[in-house]
Design a protein that fits this description.
With about 300 residues, the protein is of the alpha/beta class. The chain has 9 helices and 11 strands. Strands 3, 4, 5, 6, 7, 8, 9, 10 and 11 form a 9-stranded mixed sheet that branches. It has a two-stranded antiparallel ribbon with strand order 1-2. The model has no long low-confidence stretch (mean pLDDT about 85). GO terms for molecular function: DNA-binding transcription factor activity; sequence-specific DNA binding.
Length: about 300
C-alpha cells in the first residue's frame, strides 16, 4: 500500500469535514471534479473505500475515520512547522477563523480583532457569527467563543471573561407603557426573547430566570432582539456591553434583576502547540476582557 501524499490528505480532510465534494472543493478552491478524482486516486492507492456516498453527502467509512485521525496528526505537524519557520508571535500571519454567538460577534469581536490585526498586519481574521456552536472537529473554525465550556470531544477551553445582562427598554417604550416598578409588573408588558426551540445552550435561556414570560417578539439572534427593543417593541434581557451601541435603551429594574454569564474560548486539542493560534488566543483573551470591562463601564 502506497504512503499517501499530504496534498491528497489535505483534499481528503476537506471532503471529510464538509461531507461534500463541492463544499470541500470550495474550501480548497478546487472544482468538484478535481476533488472527486483526487479522492478516487487516494482510495485506489490505499486500496480502501474512504467514503460512503448517499444523497445526504459523503460519510466516512471505518477506514476513512482511521485515515482522518492520521491525517489530522500530519496536518498539525505541518502547521506547527509553518509557524515555527514564521517566527511565532513576531510573525503572526495567515488566516484565522473565529466562531462566536452573534452578540459577541457584533459588539465585541470587530474592534478586538481589528486591534490585533493592527499590531499584526499579516493576519486575516474571519468572524463567523452563528446562532449555534461551531463544529471545530470539522474545522468550521480555528477556535470558537461559547457561553459554556465543552463537555465532549477533543477540545480545550479557557475562560475569557464574565459579562452581565439586564432588562432593557427604549425610553420611548417606557414613556408609553404601563408602570414598571417590580418584576411582577412584567405581565403587563411586551417581552422580547429567544425562540424557545432554537436555544442551543441553556445559558441563553435568560427569560426562565424571571419565570419564563410569554414572548411577543422572538428571534434566535441577540442583535435582532436588541434592535427590536431599540425601536420600542418591548423589554429585552440584553448584554450590558451592547448598551453603548444602543443609546435609545436604558436598564430597567437593575437593582431587582441582573445576570452574569461567561465567555469561553474553545480550541481543538491538537492545535495547542500551533504557535500562531496560541499567540492569537492569548491576545484575544486579554483584549476581550478589557473590551467587556470598558463597554460595561467598569474601566
Amino acid at each position: 500500500m502506497a504512503e499517501p501524499k499530504w496534498d491528497d490528505l489535505r483534499v481528503f480532510l476537506a471532503v471529510a469535514r464538509a461531507e461534500s465534494l463541492s463544499r470541500g472543493g470550495k474550501a480548497l478552491r478546487l472544482d468538484p471534479a478535481t476533488v472527486g478524482r483526487r479522492i478516487a486516486r487516494l482510495e485506489e492507492a490505499l486500496d480502501v473505500t474512504l467514503f460512503m456516498k448517499s444523497p445526504q453527502g459523503y460519510a466516512l467509512t471505518q477506514a476513512g475515520e482511521r485515515l482522518a485521525s492520521r491525517a489530522e496528526v500530519v496536518e498539525t505537524t505541518i502547521l506547527n512547522a509553518h509557524d515555527d519557520a514564521a517566527g511565532g508571535a513576531e510573525a503572526m500571519t495567515g488566516q484565522i477563523r473565529v466562531g462566536a454567538p452573534d452578540g459577541c460577534a457584533n459588539y465585541l469581536l470587530p474592534q478586538v480583532c481589528a486591534s490585533i490585526c493592527a499590531d499584526h498586519p499579516g493576519l486575516e481574521v474571519q468572524i463567523v457569527a452563528l446562532p449555534r456552536v461551531l463544529n471545530l472537529s470539522k474545522r468550521e473554525a480555528d477556535m470558537a467563543i461559547t457561553v459554556s465550556p465543552p463537555t465532549a470531544g477533543r477540545l480545550t477551553s479557557q475562560k475569557l471573561a464574565d459579562y452581565h445582562l439586564h432588562l432593557m427598554a427604549s425610553r420611548d417604550y417606557l414613556a408609553k407603557a404601563p408602570p414598571l416598578n417590580s418584576l411582577e409588573d412584567l405581565k403587563a408588558h411586551k417581552v422580547i426573547g429567544y425562540i424557545s426551540d432554537l436555544i442551543f445552550d441553556a445559558e441563553l435561556d435568560y427569560l426562565s430566570e424571571i419565570g419564563g414570560p410569554r414572548t411577543n417578539f422572538a428571534s434566535n439572534s441577540a442583535s435582532v432582539q436588541l434592535n427590536w427593543a431599540r425601536v420600542g417593541a418591548g423589554l429585552v434581557i440584553g448584554h450590558d456591553f451592547a448598551l453603548p451601541f444602543a443609546p435609545e435603551l436604558t436598564r430597567v429594574l437593575p437593582d431587582q434583576f441582573s445576570l452574569k454569564r461567561s465567555f469561553y474560548l474553545v480550541r481543538h486539542a491538537d492545535d495547542r502547540n500551533i504557535s500562531r493560534l496560541r499567540f492569537f488566543a492569548q491576545e484575544l483573551g486579554v483584549r476581550v476582557r478589557h473590551e467587556v470591562s470598558r463597554l460595561e463601564g467598569r474601566t
